[in-house]
Specification:
By secondary structure, the chain is an alpha/beta fold. Strands 2-1-4-3-5 form a five-stranded parallel beta sheet. Helix 1 links the parallel strand 1 and strand 2. The protein is built from five helices and five strands. The chain has a single domain, classed as SPOUT methyltransferase, trefoil knot domain (Alpha/beta knot), CATH 3.40.1280.10.
């Protein structure tokens, strides 16, 4: 199974870049992994939020295949413990999912098209985080889930 992280916005800011790279490298010991950072559309600052979500979602949709298993990070999604994330990942491998895609939408979220396309909606927290920190938290939690799957000592529960 390959893991793809799709996100809208700027490239990784320096204050999180090192951590994202570290956890991404660690994830690659378990699964092939890739980040795709989709730049915001031109004139995003003057677009209505609804139109901005549509434009961003068009680009995201073009980057996905029909058979991809899509996990949308959404504040209204299901919450997990770290063990729950590990079980979720393990279940996707048992199902022989070839491409697991995690989507971090733009500042206003994603369009209904992406909402409906998502196979699963996951909430990292009831708190709201800057997108840059969401990337770091997501990468760390996926690495933690991988280490739990292998019964390794990174996760101390």
């Amino acid at each position: 199974m390959k893991i793809n992280f799709l996100t809208i916005g700027k490239t990784h800011e320096s204050f999180v870049k090192e951590g994202i790279e570290m956890f991404t490298k660690r994830i690659s010991n378990y699964f092939p992994v890739e980040w795709t950072i989709v730049p915001m559309p031109k004139n995003a600052g003057i677009m209505e939020p609804k139109m901005l979500k549509i434009k961003e979602s068009e680009v995201l949709s073009a980057l996905m295949n029909k058979e991809d298993y899509v996990v949308l990070l959404d504040e209204r999604g299901k919450s997990f413990t770290s063990e729950g994330v590990s079980n979720f990942l393990e279940q996707r491998t048992v199902e022989s999912i070839k491409n697991l895609v995690f989507i971090i939408g733009g500042a206003y979220g994603v369009s209904d098209v992406i909402m409906q396309r998502a196979n699963f909606k996951w909430s990292l927290s009831a708190l709201v985080f800057p997108h840059q920190l969401v990337r770091l938290i997501l990468a760390e939690q996926i690495y933690r889930a991988c280490s739990i799957m292998r019964n390794e000592k990174y996760h101390h529960a």
